Amino acid sequence: MANVLRSGPPFVFLLCVTKLISGQIQYSMPEELEHGAFIGNIAKDLGLNVWDLSARKLRLVSDHRKQYMEVNLENGNLFVNDRIDREQICRQSSTCSLSFQIALDNPLEMHPVAVEILDVNDNSPSFPKSEFSLQISELIAPGARFPLESARDQDVGTNTISTYQISANEHFGIKVETRRDGSKTAELLLEKFLDREQQSTFQLALTAIDGGVPHRSSTARIIITVVDANDNAPVFDHEIYRASLVENVAKGTLVTKINAADLDEGLNAELKYSFTSHVSQRIRELFELDPVSGEIRVEGVPDFEETSVYELDVQAVDKAPPGMAGHAKVVVEVIDTNDNAPELDVTLMSSTVREDAPPGTVIAVIRVTDLDSGEYGQVHCQVPVNIPFKLENPLRNNYKLVTNDILDRETSPLYNISISAWDGGSPPLSTSKFISVLVTDINDNEPRFRQSSYNVYLMENNIPGASIFAVTAIDLDLDQNGKVSYSILENQMQGMFASAYFAINSRNGNIYALRSFDYEQLKNFQIKIQAQDAGSPPLSSTTFVSIIILDQNDNAPVIVSPLTWNSSASVEIVPQSLYPGYLVTKVIATDADSGQNARLSYQLLEATDHSLFTVGLLSGEIRATRRFSDQDIITDRLALCVKDNGQPSLSSTATIFFSILSNVTEKSFERSDERQSEYFSDLNNYLIIILGSTSFCFLVTIIFLVVLKLKQDRNIAEDYRSTVCCYRRRNSNVRSYRRRGPNEPLNYTEPGRTEGYRYTVRLSPESSNSEFLFIKSSHPTLPFSDVDVRDTNARK
């Protein structure tokens, strides 16, 4: 942008430079432009056609109360709509801009626009007063300086005050000084002795000029009165007074006492002490000067860290009109005290550290500072000694926190480390900070089972697919390192791998039986379970699970003697042999189960003549209870039931037909007389008739029983097939009969739903009754804490 100002009527030639910065349109313009002044072409800078502005309803969106700018929708020009005063909008800020947005519809678009307001030199410097009065004794020597009030300019940058000028004269000059903030101050400098007789007053014009183009200025009038008679100024004992005090000293403490003398007498020698106008307000708040005694006392709280030396410009002015002043300087040195605790600046390199990190791994970098000086600023730092970390001190006041020992996340996963620092004061001041260091996991722990081996008691005829037990392994590691999976290690059982019998849930360790087990085929077996984590490399451990199959009453007794056909048997008896207690026959039955499930009892269900035979309850022996008489029928039928002692009890029935043989011998026929022969003949006829009738009835009965038996067998076969299907579906307790081997011992095991016992049954070889001599429990107590009996019947 370029501005050109000419004398006469002001003509402003404006060059606007448009920039698109990060999607934002930026213009520059000077302040104070007239209404309608051109700023830039929005349509061109947005790449739009002029006729689209109205169609898309272009509008300005601004947060300002005033609409300083507007867009001409006919040509797309952005122009000034209201007077822009930079000083009113941005005050004394070095940069000033107005921001708004261009909104378009169809489609909706928002384009940010920033207009930088450039300062123009539109404000002249101004003095707080238009006239200043000074009284200067004619006896003041050249070189004396008199501070003047400074002017103010609302413009910024080069447009603010750049210098001061004074009207031409031969006695006074002006000295301009630049402060640290860039502002200008002026002092009136006496260059030549004054002579009241020649000139008693001076009227000088003090002009403040800014740096704008063209320059602007403001003028104030200085009226100087030359005072006669008091021609001796006060003189201090020292040009510079030096004092020292400790920081944070109590209010009212005496710093020093200044003293000045005046050779005049009377009022011309009476002095008043004060700070000069060069003393800042901050120093005036810290120190107080007694105008009569010249004592300087502490008013505020001096701080060594704020500044170590204070310079106080003082003056002594006599009371004679006009007062003459003498100047001196008081230098106050502040002595440091230990009033600042050390400060810790901790830069955490990493908030986590692997538990296998080697000693010396850097965790944090620590910088310690203390605002105090000397021994107060000598800082020491440490961490607790009972942690696997230590501090290294490569540079003064710089430390490194490093690992000092092997870390174990499973023992201490998190460390809250206290870093303490203290200085060399007495007593020392200290500070501390806490940093948290998280120890990350590595795969250094293998899964561990709670037991090295387990015993599982499983009822036979279990439901395939049901859970029979669960193993659990604990891994102290985290995440993948502690994620345990379970598997069955292959070992063979009855020629097949364990995976054919069992499956395990790899996530929770539940063991499932894939088959239904038969106690009569398999009593116990052992599988090996492995638990392995998901670390890299993975770690694993194993355990053994011994599975003990418990017997269930799933086999009905089978009669093996006498030999039966369709549950029927026939026995022939010689009548002469029948006497009370005679052993007619013995029913022998076997049961594939064990224990109480195989303990059999015999019961007579039905008999043709209940008075002729008895059946031993436990032995199965059929004995005669009396002798055979001629009135007894020659055939007898007994229906027997053999049942086990299981719960529920299973049974089998058999029908035994006893045939009474003829007891007539050849000798008896030879000794018979004729009368007996005739009687025998008649009797024989009767017997033939009875025998024929009986045989016919017996034959009909046999045919009926055969037909009935065939029908029952067919029903049993159908029931068996449906039972097998149900067994496969429901895992029922119906099992096929397995005949015990000839050398297999009779082990009777009574499976309870909650208890299990094993019995050894011994039979007396001498007794034909085969009664139990004793029953001895081989396991009086069963450790049910390790027992997991899965009773499928109970589930059902």
Give a structural overview.
There is one protein chain. This protein has 796 residues and is mainly beta. The protein contains 7 helices and 55 strands. It folds into 6 domains: 19-118, Immunoglobulin-like (Sandwich); 131-227, Sandwich (Immunoglobulin-like); 235-335, Immunoglobulin-like, CATH 2.60.40.60; 343-440, Sandwich (Immunoglobulin-like), CATH 2.60.40.60; 448-550, Cadherins (Immunoglobulin-like), CATH 2.60.40; 551-664 and 698-731 and 742-796, Immunoglobulin-like, CATH 2.60.40.60. A 5-stranded mixed sheet has the order 1-2-8-7-4, with no helix packed on it. A 4-stranded mixed sheet has the order 9-15-14-11, with no helix packed on it.
Protein traits:
Immunoglobulin-like; 796 residues; five-stranded mixed beta sheet; mainly beta; 11% helix; 6 domains; four-stranded mixed beta sheet; single chain; 40% strand; elongated; disordered N terminus
Instruction: Report the end-to-end length measured between terminal Cα atoms.
Output: 98 Å
- Helix count, DSSP H or I runs of 4 or more residues: 7
How many DSSP E strands? 55
Work out the strand percent.
Answer: 35-45%
SS-derived structural category:
mainly beta
| Cα radius of gyration in angstroms | 63 Å
Mean pLDDT: 78
CATH-assigned fold name of the largest domain = Immunoglobulin-like
Question: How many separate domains?
Answer: 6
CATH architecture name of the largest domain: Sandwich
Q: Quick one: CATH superfamily of the largest domain?
A: Cadherins
Helix content bin: 10-25%
Low-confidence stretches: 1-22, 664-681, 722-796
